[in-house]
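Lab manual, section 2.4: Encoding a predicted structure.

Procedure: take the sequence of the chain (500 residues), apply the prediction step described in section 2.3, and record the output as C-alpha coordinates. A sample record is shown.
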Amino acid sequence: MRLNLFVRVMSGIAVLPPSIAGQITPAEGDESVRPAQKAGTWYPDDPAVLGKQIDALLAEAPPCVQRGKPLAVIAPHAGYRFSAPVAAAGYRCLKGHSYERVIVLAFSHRHAGGYSGVDVPAELRSYATPFGEVPIDRKACDALLGLPHFASHTNVDEGEHSLELQLPFLQRVVGEFRLVPLLVGRMTAREYAAAAEAIIPLLDENTLLVASTDFTHFGPRYRFVPFADDVPERLRALADQAAAPIMVCDFDGFSAHLETTDDTICGRGPVALLLRILSMNGGAAAVRTAFDTSGNITSDWKNSVTYQSFVFTDRAGTLEQQARDALLRLARRTVEATLKGEGLPSLSPDELLESLRADGACFVTLENNGRLRGCIGNMVATGALYQSVMHNAVSACADRRFVSNPVTAGELDRLDIEVSYLTPKKRVRNAEEIIVGRHGLLISMGARRGVLLPQVAARRGWTRDEFLAQTCRKAGLPLDAWKRPDAEIYSFEAEVFGEP
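Recorded output:
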Protein backbone atom coordinates (compact mmCIF):
# COMPACT_ATOMS: atom_id res chain seq x y z
CA MET A 1 0.00 0.00 0.00
CA ARG A 2 1.47 3.35 -1.04
CA LEU A 3 1.77 6.03 1.64
CA ASN A 4 0.61 9.49 0.59
CA LEU A 5 2.22 12.79 1.46
CA PHE A 6 -0.76 13.65 3.64
CA VAL A 7 0.70 11.63 6.52
CA ARG A 8 3.19 14.44 7.06
CA VAL A 9 0.32 16.61 8.19
CA MET A 10 -1.31 15.86 11.53
CA SER A 11 -4.56 14.41 10.26
CA GLY A 12 -7.93 13.74 11.76
CA ILE A 13 -9.23 17.32 12.07
CA ALA A 14 -10.05 20.22 9.84
CA VAL A 15 -9.35 22.99 12.35
CA LEU A 16 -8.16 22.37 15.92
CA PRO A 17 -5.86 24.00 18.43
CA PRO A 18 -2.14 23.16 18.20
CA SER A 19 -1.09 19.71 19.41
CA ILE A 20 0.74 21.15 22.40
CA ALA A 21 -1.93 19.60 24.55
CA GLY A 22 -2.50 19.77 28.25
CA GLN A 23 -1.61 16.45 29.85
CA ILE A 24 -3.13 14.30 32.54
CA THR A 25 0.08 13.16 34.15
CA PRO A 26 0.71 10.14 36.38
CA ALA A 27 2.64 10.30 39.61
CA GLU A 28 5.83 12.28 39.13
CA GLY A 29 8.63 10.13 37.81
CA ASP A 30 6.39 7.15 37.01
CA GLU A 31 7.37 6.41 33.43
CA SER A 32 5.37 3.18 33.37
CA VAL A 33 2.14 5.18 32.92
CA ARG A 34 1.48 6.84 29.58
CA PRO A 35 -0.07 10.30 30.25
CA ALA A 36 -3.24 11.58 28.56
CA GLN A 37 -1.45 13.89 26.15
CA LYS A 38 -4.51 15.31 24.36
CA ALA A 39 -6.82 15.86 27.32
CA GLY A 40 -7.75 19.51 27.64
CA THR A 41 -7.48 20.26 23.92
CA TRP A 42 -8.79 17.43 21.78
CA TYR A 43 -11.27 16.34 24.45
CA PRO A 44 -12.21 17.56 27.97
CA ASP A 45 -9.76 16.97 30.80
CA ASP A 46 -12.43 17.32 33.50
CA PRO A 47 -13.81 13.81 34.14
CA ALA A 48 -17.28 15.14 35.01
CA VAL A 49 -17.49 17.21 31.82
CA LEU A 50 -16.06 14.38 29.74
CA GLY A 51 -18.46 11.84 31.21
CA LYS A 52 -21.45 14.08 30.61
CA GLN A 53 -20.37 14.68 26.99
CA ILE A 54 -19.85 10.99 26.18
CA ASP A 55 -23.07 9.92 27.91
CA ALA A 56 -25.04 12.50 25.92
CA LEU A 57 -23.46 11.38 22.65
CA LEU A 58 -24.20 7.73 23.39
CA ALA A 59 -27.81 8.57 24.21
CA GLU A 60 -28.21 10.56 20.98
CA ALA A 61 -26.56 7.93 18.77
CA PRO A 62 -28.84 5.97 16.41
CA PRO A 63 -30.09 2.57 17.64
CA CYS A 64 -27.86 -0.38 16.82
CA VAL A 65 -29.09 -2.71 14.11
CA GLN A 66 -26.39 -5.38 14.34
CA ARG A 67 -27.28 -8.80 15.74
CA GLY A 68 -25.16 -10.52 18.35
CA LYS A 69 -22.23 -9.47 20.47
CA PRO A 70 -19.82 -7.14 18.66
CA LEU A 71 -16.45 -8.63 17.76
CA ALA A 72 -14.87 -5.39 16.59
CA VAL A 73 -15.39 -1.67 16.07
CA ILE A 74 -13.87 0.85 13.67
CA ALA A 75 -14.03 4.36 15.13
CA PRO A 76 -12.57 7.79 14.26
CA HIS A 77 -10.04 9.63 16.40
CA ALA A 78 -10.25 13.34 15.54
CA GLY A 79 -10.94 15.95 18.19
CA TYR A 80 -14.23 15.17 19.90
CA ARG A 81 -15.84 18.32 18.48
CA PHE A 82 -15.60 16.69 15.06
CA SER A 83 -15.59 12.90 15.36
CA ALA A 84 -17.13 12.01 18.72
CA PRO A 85 -20.75 11.67 17.48
CA VAL A 86 -19.63 9.18 14.82
CA ALA A 87 -17.51 7.27 17.33
CA ALA A 88 -20.42 7.20 19.78
CA ALA A 89 -22.64 5.49 17.20
CA GLY A 90 -20.21 2.59 17.08
CA TYR A 91 -19.52 2.41 20.79
CA ARG A 92 -23.21 2.51 21.67
CA CYS A 93 -23.47 -1.00 20.20
CA LEU A 94 -21.20 -2.31 22.96
CA LYS A 95 -23.75 -1.49 25.65
CA GLY A 96 -25.10 -4.59 27.35
CA HIS A 97 -22.02 -6.62 26.45
CA SER A 98 -19.01 -7.32 28.64
CA TYR A 99 -15.32 -7.50 27.70
CA GLU A 100 -12.24 -8.21 29.78
CA ARG A 101 -9.67 -7.21 27.18
CA VAL A 102 -9.61 -4.68 24.33
CA ILE A 103 -7.02 -4.80 21.54
CA VAL A 104 -6.74 -1.33 20.00
CA LEU A 105 -5.13 -1.14 16.56
CA ALA A 106 -3.90 2.41 16.07
CA PHE A 107 -0.84 4.04 14.46
CA SER A 108 1.59 6.94 14.71
CA HIS A 109 0.80 10.07 12.70
CA ARG A 110 4.19 11.58 13.47
CA HIS A 111 6.14 8.49 12.52
CA ALA A 112 3.84 7.23 9.74
CA GLY A 113 5.95 5.21 7.32
CA GLY A 114 8.94 5.42 9.67
CA TYR A 115 8.68 1.95 11.15
CA SER A 116 7.60 -1.46 9.96
CA GLY A 117 5.51 -4.10 11.67
CA VAL A 118 3.51 -3.49 14.83
CA ASP A 119 4.70 -1.42 17.77
CA VAL A 120 4.03 -2.91 21.21
CA PRO A 121 4.93 -1.05 24.41
CA ALA A 122 7.66 -2.89 26.29
CA GLU A 123 7.66 -1.06 29.62
CA LEU A 124 4.28 0.61 30.10
CA ARG A 125 1.83 -0.77 32.65
CA SER A 126 -1.10 1.56 31.91
CA TYR A 127 -2.55 4.45 29.90
CA ALA A 128 -3.93 7.44 31.83
CA THR A 129 -7.14 9.30 30.94
CA PRO A 130 -9.25 11.80 32.87
CA PHE A 131 -11.30 8.79 34.05
CA GLY A 132 -8.26 7.06 35.52
CA GLU A 133 -5.72 4.48 34.40
CA VAL A 134 -6.36 1.67 31.91
CA PRO A 135 -4.10 -1.29 32.78
CA ILE A 136 -2.09 -2.84 29.98
CA ASP A 137 -2.32 -6.60 29.47
CA ARG A 138 1.39 -7.17 29.97
CA LYS A 139 1.15 -10.94 29.48
CA ALA A 140 -0.40 -10.50 26.02
CA CYS A 141 1.99 -7.70 25.04
CA ASP A 142 5.06 -9.63 26.17
CA ALA A 143 3.89 -12.68 24.22
CA LEU A 144 3.57 -10.59 21.05
CA LEU A 145 6.98 -8.97 21.57
CA GLY A 146 8.56 -12.39 21.21
CA LEU A 147 7.14 -12.88 17.71
CA PRO A 148 8.22 -11.67 14.24
CA HIS A 149 6.80 -8.31 13.09
CA PHE A 150 6.20 -7.11 16.67
CA ALA A 151 8.67 -4.79 18.39
CA SER A 152 8.89 -1.81 20.70
CA HIS A 153 9.99 1.44 19.01
CA THR A 154 11.25 4.44 20.97
CA ASN A 155 8.94 7.48 21.05
CA VAL A 156 6.54 6.15 18.40
CA ASP A 157 3.58 6.94 20.70
CA GLU A 158 4.85 10.36 21.76
CA GLY A 159 2.18 12.99 21.14
CA GLU A 160 -0.03 10.44 19.38
CA HIS A 161 -3.82 10.62 19.62
CA SER A 162 -5.16 7.76 17.47
CA LEU A 163 -5.20 5.31 20.38
CA GLU A 164 -5.69 7.73 23.25
CA LEU A 165 -8.98 9.16 21.97
CA GLN A 166 -10.61 5.71 21.91
CA LEU A 167 -10.00 5.07 25.60
CA PRO A 168 -12.55 7.41 27.26
CA PHE A 169 -15.34 5.89 25.15
CA LEU A 170 -14.18 2.37 26.07
CA GLN A 171 -13.95 3.26 29.76
CA ARG A 172 -17.44 4.74 29.72
CA VAL A 173 -19.08 1.85 27.85
CA VAL A 174 -17.02 -1.24 28.71
CA GLY A 175 -15.90 -0.20 32.18
CA GLU A 176 -12.82 -2.01 33.45
CA PHE A 177 -10.70 -3.89 30.92
CA ARG A 178 -7.11 -4.77 30.11
CA LEU A 179 -5.61 -2.96 27.12
CA VAL A 180 -3.40 -4.30 24.34
CA PRO A 181 -2.19 -1.10 22.58
CA LEU A 182 -0.78 -1.77 19.10
CA LEU A 183 0.50 0.84 16.64
CA VAL A 184 0.56 -0.50 13.08
CA GLY A 185 3.40 0.57 10.79
CA ARG A 186 4.41 -0.34 7.23
CA MET A 187 3.42 -3.90 6.33
CA THR A 188 3.18 -6.11 3.27
CA ALA A 189 0.20 -8.39 2.59
CA ARG A 190 2.19 -11.36 3.88
CA GLU A 191 3.19 -9.46 7.03
CA TYR A 192 -0.42 -8.50 7.73
CA ALA A 193 -1.28 -12.21 7.59
CA ALA A 194 1.58 -13.13 9.93
CA ALA A 195 0.59 -10.40 12.41
CA ALA A 196 -3.04 -11.49 12.26
CA GLU A 197 -2.03 -15.09 12.94
CA ALA A 198 -0.17 -13.90 16.05
CA ILE A 199 -3.10 -11.86 17.35
CA ILE A 200 -5.85 -14.42 16.72
CA PRO A 201 -4.90 -16.61 19.74
CA LEU A 202 -5.71 -13.62 21.95
CA LEU A 203 -9.29 -13.49 20.69
CA ASP A 204 -12.07 -15.00 22.76
CA GLU A 205 -15.63 -14.11 23.67
CA ASN A 206 -14.34 -11.56 26.20
CA THR A 207 -11.96 -9.73 23.84
CA LEU A 208 -12.90 -6.77 21.65
CA LEU A 209 -10.97 -5.45 18.64
CA VAL A 210 -10.92 -1.73 17.87
CA ALA A 211 -9.36 -0.13 14.79
CA SER A 212 -8.77 3.62 14.94
CA THR A 213 -8.99 5.67 11.76
CA ASP A 214 -10.39 8.75 10.12
CA PHE A 215 -11.22 8.42 6.44
CA THR A 216 -10.62 10.70 3.45
CA HIS A 217 -8.52 13.81 4.17
CA PHE A 218 -9.56 16.17 1.38
CA GLY A 219 -8.12 19.51 0.34
CA PRO A 220 -4.82 21.32 -0.20
CA ARG A 221 -3.92 20.96 3.46
CA TYR A 222 -3.72 17.22 2.90
CA ARG A 223 -2.42 17.44 -0.69
CA PHE A 224 -5.39 15.46 -1.93
CA VAL A 225 -7.74 17.28 -4.31
CA PRO A 226 -9.00 14.62 -6.77
CA PHE A 227 -12.09 16.69 -7.61
CA ALA A 228 -13.25 20.28 -7.33
CA ASP A 229 -17.00 20.08 -7.99
CA ASP A 230 -19.81 18.58 -5.92
CA VAL A 231 -17.39 18.01 -3.05
CA PRO A 232 -19.91 16.84 -0.38
CA GLU A 233 -21.51 14.28 -2.72
CA ARG A 234 -18.20 13.03 -4.06
CA LEU A 235 -16.72 12.69 -0.59
CA ARG A 236 -19.72 10.59 0.35
CA ALA A 237 -19.25 8.45 -2.76
CA LEU A 238 -15.57 7.94 -1.90
CA ALA A 239 -16.53 6.95 1.65
CA ASP A 240 -19.02 4.44 0.26
CA GLN A 241 -16.30 2.96 -1.95
CA ALA A 242 -14.06 2.49 1.08
CA ALA A 243 -16.91 1.10 3.18
CA ALA A 244 -17.94 -1.57 0.65
CA PRO A 245 -14.97 -3.93 1.19
CA ILE A 246 -14.85 -3.16 4.91
CA MET A 247 -18.42 -4.34 5.42
CA VAL A 248 -17.67 -7.77 3.93
CA CYS A 249 -14.20 -8.11 5.54
CA ASP A 250 -12.52 -7.98 2.15
CA PHE A 251 -8.82 -7.31 2.77
CA ASP A 252 -7.98 -7.49 -0.93
CA GLY A 253 -10.85 -5.18 -1.85
CA PHE A 254 -9.78 -2.59 0.71
CA SER A 255 -6.19 -2.75 -0.54
CA ALA A 256 -7.41 -2.33 -4.12
CA HIS A 257 -9.49 0.69 -3.11
CA LEU A 258 -6.41 2.39 -1.69
CA GLU A 259 -4.29 1.59 -4.73
CA THR A 260 -6.81 2.75 -7.30
CA THR A 261 -8.02 5.91 -5.57
CA ASP A 262 -5.05 7.00 -3.40
CA ASP A 263 -7.73 7.59 -0.76
CA THR A 264 -6.09 9.39 2.17
CA ILE A 265 -7.28 7.08 4.94
CA CYS A 266 -4.82 7.75 7.75
CA GLY A 267 -5.54 4.51 9.65
CA ARG A 268 -5.28 2.26 6.62
CA GLY A 269 -2.87 0.01 8.52
CA PRO A 270 -5.18 -0.62 11.50
CA VAL A 271 -8.15 -1.22 9.19
CA ALA A 272 -6.21 -3.61 6.95
CA LEU A 273 -4.95 -5.58 9.95
CA LEU A 274 -8.45 -5.72 11.43
CA LEU A 275 -9.87 -7.08 8.17
CA ARG A 276 -7.08 -9.63 7.92
CA ILE A 277 -7.69 -10.79 11.52
CA LEU A 278 -11.44 -11.14 11.04
CA SER A 279 -11.18 -12.87 7.67
CA MET A 280 -8.64 -15.37 9.00
CA ASN A 281 -10.75 -16.02 12.08
CA GLY A 282 -14.00 -17.07 10.41
CA GLY A 283 -15.15 -13.79 8.93
CA ALA A 284 -17.70 -11.32 10.24
CA ALA A 285 -20.72 -9.25 9.26
CA ALA A 286 -20.53 -5.48 9.52
CA VAL A 287 -22.83 -2.49 9.61
CA ARG A 288 -21.86 1.14 9.16
CA THR A 289 -23.15 2.93 12.23
CA ALA A 290 -22.44 6.55 11.27
CA PHE A 291 -20.94 8.90 8.68
CA ASP A 292 -20.04 12.59 8.77
CA THR A 293 -17.44 15.08 7.56
CA SER A 294 -15.75 18.07 9.12
CA GLY A 295 -16.88 20.01 6.05
CA ASN A 296 -20.48 19.37 7.02
CA ILE A 297 -19.77 20.46 10.60
CA THR A 298 -17.92 23.68 9.74
CA SER A 299 -19.49 24.41 6.32
CA ASP A 300 -15.93 24.71 5.00
CA TRP A 301 -15.38 22.29 2.13
CA LYS A 302 -11.95 23.55 1.09
CA ASN A 303 -10.41 21.09 3.55
CA SER A 304 -12.51 18.28 4.98
CA VAL A 305 -11.99 15.02 6.87
CA THR A 306 -14.43 12.13 6.62
CA TYR A 307 -15.50 10.09 9.65
CA GLN A 308 -17.14 6.65 9.62
CA SER A 309 -17.76 4.00 12.25
CA PHE A 310 -18.48 0.28 11.82
CA VAL A 311 -19.46 -2.60 14.07
CA PHE A 312 -18.63 -6.24 13.30
CA THR A 313 -20.41 -9.36 14.58
CA ASP A 314 -20.40 -13.06 13.75
CA ARG A 315 -21.94 -13.92 10.39
CA ALA A 316 -25.36 -15.44 10.81
CA GLY A 317 -25.75 -19.04 9.65
CA THR A 318 -28.78 -21.01 8.53
CA LEU A 319 -28.18 -24.05 10.74
CA GLU A 320 -29.19 -23.72 14.35
CA GLN A 321 -26.68 -24.77 17.02
CA GLN A 322 -28.71 -27.88 17.82
CA ALA A 323 -28.41 -29.01 14.20
CA ARG A 324 -24.67 -28.34 14.13
CA ASP A 325 -24.13 -30.33 17.31
CA ALA A 326 -26.19 -33.22 15.95
CA LEU A 327 -24.18 -33.31 12.69
CA LEU A 328 -20.88 -33.31 14.56
CA ARG A 329 -22.03 -36.18 16.79
CA LEU A 330 -23.17 -38.09 13.71
CA ALA A 331 -19.87 -37.48 11.96
CA ARG A 332 -17.95 -38.65 15.05
CA ARG A 333 -20.02 -41.82 15.37
CA THR A 334 -19.57 -42.54 11.65
CA VAL A 335 -15.80 -42.04 11.76
CA GLU A 336 -15.47 -44.25 14.83
CA ALA A 337 -17.56 -47.01 13.29
CA THR A 338 -15.63 -46.82 10.00
CA LEU A 339 -12.18 -46.94 11.57
CA LYS A 340 -13.19 -49.83 13.84
CA GLY A 341 -14.62 -51.80 10.90
CA GLU A 342 -18.17 -51.65 12.21
CA GLY A 343 -21.38 -50.90 10.35
CA LEU A 344 -22.72 -47.40 9.92
CA PRO A 345 -24.60 -45.93 12.90
CA SER A 346 -28.27 -46.74 12.90
CA LEU A 347 -30.71 -43.87 13.27
CA SER A 348 -34.31 -43.04 12.55
CA PRO A 349 -34.61 -40.11 10.10
CA ASP A 350 -37.97 -39.20 11.62
CA GLU A 351 -36.20 -38.33 14.86
CA LEU A 352 -33.84 -35.87 13.14
CA LEU A 353 -34.35 -32.14 12.86
CA GLU A 354 -36.04 -31.04 9.67
CA SER A 355 -32.93 -29.05 8.62
CA LEU A 356 -30.88 -32.28 8.69
CA ARG A 357 -33.38 -34.13 6.52
CA ALA A 358 -33.38 -31.40 3.86
CA ASP A 359 -31.07 -31.71 0.87
CA GLY A 360 -27.58 -30.44 1.60
CA ALA A 361 -23.99 -30.53 0.35
CA CYS A 362 -21.04 -30.60 2.71
CA PHE A 363 -17.41 -31.49 3.34
CA VAL A 364 -16.13 -33.45 6.33
CA THR A 365 -12.57 -32.71 7.46
CA LEU A 366 -10.42 -34.80 9.79
CA GLU A 367 -7.34 -33.35 11.48
CA ASN A 368 -4.89 -34.81 13.98
CA ASN A 369 -3.37 -32.03 16.10
CA GLY A 370 -3.77 -29.62 13.20
CA ARG A 371 -2.48 -32.03 10.54
CA LEU A 372 -4.91 -32.86 7.76
CA ARG A 373 -5.85 -36.57 7.71
CA GLY A 374 -8.79 -36.47 5.34
CA CYS A 375 -11.21 -34.06 3.68
CA ILE A 376 -13.94 -35.22 1.32
CA GLY A 377 -17.22 -33.63 0.26
CA ASN A 378 -19.80 -33.06 -2.41
CA MET A 379 -20.37 -29.73 -4.14
CA VAL A 380 -23.94 -30.45 -5.18
CA ALA A 381 -26.66 -31.74 -2.87
CA THR A 382 -27.73 -35.24 -3.91
CA GLY A 383 -29.70 -36.15 -0.81
CA ALA A 384 -30.37 -35.27 2.80
CA LEU A 385 -27.72 -33.30 4.66
CA TYR A 386 -27.32 -35.96 7.34
CA GLN A 387 -26.70 -38.57 4.63
CA SER A 388 -24.05 -36.34 3.04
CA VAL A 389 -22.29 -36.01 6.39
CA MET A 390 -22.25 -39.77 6.93
CA HIS A 391 -21.12 -40.54 3.37
CA ASN A 392 -18.34 -37.93 3.43
CA ALA A 393 -17.20 -38.97 6.91
CA VAL A 394 -16.68 -42.51 5.59
CA SER A 395 -14.85 -41.22 2.52
CA ALA A 396 -12.66 -38.86 4.56
CA CYS A 397 -11.34 -41.89 6.46
CA ALA A 398 -10.02 -43.23 3.15
CA ASP A 399 -8.83 -39.98 1.53
CA ARG A 400 -6.59 -41.18 -1.31
CA ARG A 401 -4.04 -38.48 -0.53
CA PHE A 402 -3.15 -40.52 2.54
CA VAL A 403 -3.29 -43.98 1.01
CA SER A 404 0.24 -44.74 2.21
CA ASN A 405 -0.52 -43.45 5.70
CA PRO A 406 -4.27 -43.81 6.26
CA VAL A 407 -6.01 -42.56 9.37
CA THR A 408 -6.41 -45.32 11.97
CA ALA A 409 -8.57 -46.14 14.98
CA GLY A 410 -5.56 -45.39 17.17
CA GLU A 411 -5.93 -41.72 16.28
CA LEU A 412 -9.55 -41.39 17.34
CA ASP A 413 -8.78 -39.59 20.58
CA ARG A 414 -6.63 -37.06 18.70
CA LEU A 415 -8.90 -36.48 15.72
CA ASP A 416 -10.77 -33.19 15.34
CA ILE A 417 -13.81 -33.29 13.06
CA GLU A 418 -15.09 -30.29 11.12
CA VAL A 419 -18.17 -29.98 8.91
CA SER A 420 -18.53 -27.40 6.15
CA TYR A 421 -22.14 -26.94 5.04
CA LEU A 422 -22.07 -25.46 1.53
CA THR A 423 -24.23 -23.01 -0.35
CA PRO A 424 -24.84 -23.69 -4.07
CA LYS A 425 -21.86 -22.72 -6.22
CA LYS A 426 -21.99 -19.55 -8.33
CA ARG A 427 -20.09 -18.77 -11.54
CA VAL A 428 -17.45 -16.07 -11.06
CA ARG A 429 -17.16 -13.65 -13.96
CA ASN A 430 -14.76 -11.21 -12.28
CA ALA A 431 -12.07 -12.34 -9.84
CA GLU A 432 -12.69 -9.22 -7.74
CA GLU A 433 -15.96 -10.82 -6.64
CA ILE A 434 -13.98 -13.36 -4.57
CA ILE A 435 -13.62 -12.55 -0.87
CA VAL A 436 -11.01 -14.50 1.05
CA GLY A 437 -12.54 -15.73 4.28
CA ARG A 438 -16.04 -15.86 2.85
CA HIS A 439 -15.76 -17.79 -0.43
CA GLY A 440 -14.50 -21.21 -1.37
CA LEU A 441 -13.38 -21.86 -4.93
CA LEU A 442 -13.85 -24.47 -7.63
CA ILE A 443 -11.72 -24.05 -10.75
CA SER A 444 -12.03 -26.37 -13.72
CA MET A 445 -10.40 -26.55 -17.12
CA GLY A 446 -11.01 -29.49 -19.37
CA ALA A 447 -10.93 -32.67 -17.28
CA ARG A 448 -9.07 -31.04 -14.41
CA ARG A 449 -10.85 -29.62 -11.40
CA GLY A 450 -9.72 -28.28 -8.03
CA VAL A 451 -11.70 -27.27 -4.94
CA LEU A 452 -10.54 -25.39 -1.84
CA LEU A 453 -12.83 -24.57 1.08
CA PRO A 454 -13.11 -20.99 2.40
CA GLN A 455 -11.25 -21.77 5.62
CA VAL A 456 -8.21 -23.07 3.73
CA ALA A 457 -7.41 -19.67 2.26
CA ALA A 458 -8.53 -17.76 5.34
CA ARG A 459 -6.40 -19.67 7.83
CA ARG A 460 -3.33 -19.37 5.64
CA GLY A 461 -3.80 -15.65 5.16
CA TRP A 462 -3.71 -15.90 1.37
CA THR A 463 -4.49 -12.95 -0.82
CA ARG A 464 -7.12 -13.36 -3.52
CA ASP A 465 -4.48 -14.03 -6.19
CA GLU A 466 -2.76 -16.61 -3.97
CA PHE A 467 -6.09 -18.33 -3.38
CA LEU A 468 -6.78 -18.55 -7.11
CA ALA A 469 -3.27 -19.84 -7.79
CA GLN A 470 -3.45 -22.50 -5.08
CA THR A 471 -6.83 -23.70 -6.34
CA CYS A 472 -5.25 -24.10 -9.77
CA ARG A 473 -2.42 -26.05 -8.16
CA LYS A 474 -5.00 -28.30 -6.50
CA ALA A 475 -6.47 -28.97 -9.95
CA GLY A 476 -3.05 -29.82 -11.38
CA LEU A 477 -3.11 -26.69 -13.52
CA PRO A 478 -0.52 -23.92 -13.96
CA LEU A 479 -0.77 -21.34 -11.17
CA ASP A 480 -2.03 -18.67 -13.56
CA ALA A 481 -4.55 -20.90 -15.34
CA TRP A 482 -7.43 -19.02 -13.70
CA LYS A 483 -6.67 -16.08 -16.00
CA ARG A 484 -7.30 -18.10 -19.16
CA PRO A 485 -10.62 -17.64 -20.98
CA ASP A 486 -11.42 -21.38 -20.94
CA ALA A 487 -11.02 -21.61 -17.14
CA GLU A 488 -14.31 -21.89 -15.26
CA ILE A 489 -14.30 -20.37 -11.77
CA TYR A 490 -17.06 -20.93 -9.23
CA SER A 491 -17.41 -19.60 -5.71
CA PHE A 492 -19.44 -20.88 -2.82
CA GLU A 493 -19.85 -20.12 0.85
CA ALA A 494 -19.75 -22.47 3.81
CA GLU A 495 -20.94 -22.63 7.38
CA VAL A 496 -17.93 -24.14 9.08
CA PHE A 497 -18.24 -25.71 12.50
CA GLY A 498 -16.15 -28.19 14.40
CA GLU A 499 -15.85 -30.02 17.66
CA PRO A 500 -14.77 -27.96 20.69
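Check your result against the sample. The mean pLDDT is 93.
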